[in-house]
Amino acid sequence: MFYKQKSVLLFFVIIANLFTGQAQNFKAGDPIAVNQKIKKGVLPNGMTYYIYPTTVNKNTASYYIIQNVGSILENDQQKGLAHFLEHMAFNGTKNFEGKGILNTLQKQGAVFGKNINAYTSTDETVYNLDNIPSKDSGVVDTCLLVLHDWSGFLSLTNQEIDAERGVITEEWRTRQNASQRIYNQLAPYYYNNSLYADRKPIGDMEIVKNFDYQVLKDFYKDWYRPDLQAIAIVGDINAEDIEARIKKLFADIPARQNPKKRFEIAIPDNDKATFKLALDKEISSSNIIYMIRHKAEKPTGTFADLEKSTQRSIAFSLINNRLGEMAQKEDCPFKGAQIGFQNYSRLNDILFISLSPKPNQQEAAFTVVMNEWVRATKFGFSKGEIERAVTERISSYENYLEKLNEISHKSVISAVKKDYLKHEIISDPVAEFEMLKTIWNNLDSAILQKQLNDLYTTNNRVVAVTGVEKENNLNEEKAFDIISKAENNPTLKPYVDSFAGKSLMGDIVVKPGKIVSEKTTKEINATTYILSNGVKVHFKFADKNKKDVKLIAESTGGESLYEPKDLPSVNYATNLAEMSGLGNLTSTDLEKVLTGKIANVSFDLLDSKEKISGASNVRDLETMMQLIYMRFEKPRFDAEMFGLLKQRMQNSLNEKEQDIESQMNDSIVNTVYGKNSFKKRMIENQEYVDDLSFDKMKSIYLDRFADVSNFEFYIVGDVTPEILKPLLEKYIASISGIKRNEKYVDKEVEWISKKIDKDIVIKMETPKSSVNICYAKEYPYSLKNIILVSFFNDILTLRYTESLREKEGGTYGAHLRSKLVKLPKPSSKSKATVSINFDCDAEKVEHLLPIVYQEIDKVKNGEIVAEDLEKTRKNYLKSRADSKNFNNYIMSLLYNYFTENYNMDDPKNYEDIVNSITPKDIQDFANSFLSNADTFEVVFKPLQ
Ligand SMILES: [Zn+2]
Question: Whole-angstrom Cα distance, residue 424 to residue 155?
């Protein structure tokens, strides 16, 4: 199925009268209609192919090879080699020597790691080429040839294998952290000591560093073969044409004679429940998961399957709504909890009850969550809960049907994977909706309870606890005692659904304002309305995304207007308002009121401005406008929610202390800005939490949103002025407010020194070094300079991939981030920054650092690889063309036109500049930016 269950936090609408509608009758064995838009076939050699034409991204296509192969198939000498092979696919094939695949596709504007990628898991290995230009027949053939070579023609040269050992060791190092170490302790319990526990895809580093070439080749020969492979091509292509090319190109891959059996591992049963407590020095918050394993059900492709999965999904979402509501209370013993049912391994599914207890509340938290589970299984759900769940789903599905042409390549691929690897058919959405309506129509509490009770079996139970040193951790005896007490709890009563008869606007009477003037801007075909309360609204019609409306509104001021002492309250003022609900509604009530509505709004305070963002389906545009009106006129501030917010911040502060990444981030801030930087408060420490104040937050919010006339609105979407204008008059022009003219105040903080060079030693469980380098300088703001900063960034990235990663095997990857930003008016300053970060073996820092600087010097000396420039140029032109498929681009166009005074659609503002950039431009930029730039180099090293 394409259709993904949306998160329960999204808002939906009621439009069909479900309970009186005529639904068809289906029988359990009725087949689910197969999606006819997808072409599926099997070649004589056993390879499966899928072709799906779509114009969601015009002129591009994505190419995948999905292999029914993973680390579970490794033998004891091959641990890590399924993943090793995945890397080797990018290091030479029959038709693409060396880095030929990357080189060829980068010239089409593709980016390694983004458009070209792969992953290996225990039971599948997937390679992808995403959004490659599809209108050049030669490029299409090239992409198909890449899939062809991946299928069976990897070169696997000894030299390339040796070069990759270091990269993978560094990948392991980068990924190695406390949760990985906890997983290693718990895996034997999760998987009941089956092979899964010993076949983590990253593997065994001793093997990765030392295996004989032949061992890798054996794995390749045994498992990479057409009967275990499917290819999928999705995009702006002609299906018949692609099918013909596939049949021709893939014919030379022979079917394997006497292939090894592709075995599958079932996790063995355990009659007696098992328990494990895992600890790690760098873990400071606990977690409990109680799971019950089941045999995976074989899909039958019938109404019965859809019925069961739909009923389960609704039952679990209702329990999770209750748990979510409980977590909104300060005295609730858990931070979050979730109960669900999902596929776990090839042959097993799990029911899981998982929770994050608050500090020192493991027993209480587990007890409360278990009681909720048992309450649901015993007493079921109220009529109101079920009706709201169904309303949400109808709305969500209708919205989905309106946007069938906008299904992303990735969603299609995820359906293809389920079809190929798990035999779940790809359904026809319209026919599926008919079945769903029948299922929803027949729902009642007994049906949902039965689904839950059927999954709560007595065997195959596991309780896995991530504990915290110094806490009173849940032990085996206590855990099982809590479970059995909950199962037999005589005091449990049915859940009371407290929600009734509330509405968003309540009895509020809105006095509409007026649109006092209207002006058209021909150049970008936009309209500007001035409202009677002084608000300016810029609007542009856009239907790149059907039925969508997007909104942004901004006014200058923001955090810059406050003193350091108030900054914590500034930073969390809008969070408090959001958590507190709206008008007379708590946030839980609000969520219920908005059941079935597709509309959301958020209010934020940023460095230099107040910002409102909103999005809705066109039929719920009025709801979005009402939400904006209410957040201005009737914000709610709840002292209990303040208590909860402060508690959450205190907890996360405590957790930060043991977390290596947070320690590194805080150290960099302290090193660069000094511990006593008064203008800003960038680190959330104890003093920060102590300075949070309910009264301040409330008054800051009210003050920041007191002057609506200072806001400029930008609206883009599939809506006509006839619909929009009355809503603007009613809900935006009616917002009252004082009038003032606020400006941003420049409070930029300087670094403590122009040149900072520091090594910082920290205690860590898995030793690694992390290198952080940054350049910053005031630099003139222009469209061309923005583009130059970006070219410099991307060309260096290509260099570091070649030198630090591929040649040295020194790091899994160097990450660069660069930008040129200007401070808001009245400031005339703008600043460019370039930052470089990578992890590596602590022993190798002194060897790798000079390489980082050598690559920069080369750019300064004009030694720029011509191909790097062309790859980058092509990528920018292609990305810009791709972005034009979506309403977000239209929003940027409108926003930039009115804030920065330029027209994004005019090639002279982007395409012409990108096309004009020469190596000399990059060299000149590097020299002028880097000369006299402020720099820091902070290197973290493990305490020996
Ligand atoms: Zn990898």
Answer: 34
**45-252 belongs to CATH 3.30.830.10:** yes
CA of 83 to the centre of ligand 1 (A): 6
- What separation in Å is there between the alpha carbon of 119 and the centre of ligand 1? 7
Distance of CA 818 to the CA centre of its chain: 22
How many CB atoms sit inside 10 A of residue 98's CB? Answer: 16
How crowded is residue 828: how many other Cβ atoms within 10 Å of its Cβ? Answer: 8
Residue 212 pLDDT: 98
Closest by CA position to 523, among listed 909, 796, 932, 76: 909
CA distances from 168 to 133, 250, 756 (A): 31, 31, 32
In this structure, the dihedral spanned by the alpha carbons of residues 670, 675, 678 and 682, taken in order and rounded to 10 degrees, is 40
Residue 812 φ/ψ, nearest 5 degrees? -70, -30
Q: What are the b/e assignments for 358-390, b being 16+ CB within 10 Å?
A: bbebbbbbbbbbbbbbbbbbeebbbeebbbbbb
Distance 87 CA to ligand 1 centre (A): 6
Q: How far apart are CA 902 and CA 399, in angstroms?
A: 34
Query: How far apart are the CA of 176 and the centre of ligand 1, in A?
Result: 13
**pTM above 0.85?**
yes
Q: Taking a C-beta distance cutoff of 8 angstroms, is the pair 504, 594 a contact? A: yes
Tokens 């002006």 belong to which residue? 519
Q: What is the mean pLDDT of the chain?
A: 94
pLDDT at 748: 79
Q: Which CATH class is domain 18-32+267-406+415-487?
A: alpha beta
Residue 630 structure tokens: 């209410």
Helices (H), ranges, 153-294: 158-175, 178-190, 205-210, 213-223, 239-249
Residue among 438, 452, 444, 398 nearest 303 (CA): 438
Compute the distance between CA of residue 731 and CA of residue 513 in angstroms, rounded to an integer: 8
User: In angstroms, rounded to a whole number, what is the distance separating the alpha carbons of residues 627 and 634?
Assistant: 10
Enumerate residues 6+ apart whose C-beta is below 8 A from 477.
none
Cα 401 to ligand 1 centre (Å): 37
Angstrom distance (rounded) from CA 855 to CA 102: 20
Contact 679, 749 (CB under 8 A): yes
Please give the sequence-ordered ranges of beta strands (E in DSSP) within 706-783, or none if there are none.
712-717, 755-762, 769-778
Q: How far is the CA of 170 from the centre of ligand 1 (A)?
A: 10
Condensed to tens digits (0 to 9), the pLDDT of residues 234-267 reads 999 999 999 999 999 999 999 999 999 999 999 9
C-alpha separations of 44 from 66, 246, 252, 259 in Å = 18, 12, 10, 15
The neighbour count for residue 538, using CB atoms within 10 Å, is: 22
Average pLDDT over every residue of 582-601: 95
Both structure tokens of 200: 């983590």
Cα 848–850–856 angle (5° rounding)?
110
What pLDDT is stored for residue 1 in this prediction?
40
Secondary structure letter of residue 21 according to DSSP: S
User: Which of 240-249, 721-730, 761-770, 922-931 has the lowest average pLDDT?
Assistant: 761-770
Distance from Cα 202 to the centre of ligand 1, integer Å: 7
Q: List pLDDT tens digits, range 669-725.
A: 999 998 766 666 778 889 999 999 999 999 999 999 999 999 999 999 999 999 999
Cα(548)–Cα(399) distance, integer angstroms? 10
Give the separation between CA 531 and CA 102, rounded to whole angstroms.
54
940 C-alpha to center of ligand 1: Å?
Answer: 24
Q: Ligand 1 mean position to 616 CA, how many Å?
A: 39
- Smallest CA-to-CA distance from 412 within 884, 886, 35 is with 35
| Domain 755-942 CATH class label | alpha beta
**Structural element, H or E, at residue 866:** helix 866-883
In the chain, residues under CATH classification 3.30.830.10 are: 18-32+267-406+415-487, 45-252, 515-732, 755-942
**Cα 208 to middle of ligand 1, angstroms:** 12
The domain 515-732 having CATH identifier 2.30.29.170: the answer here is no
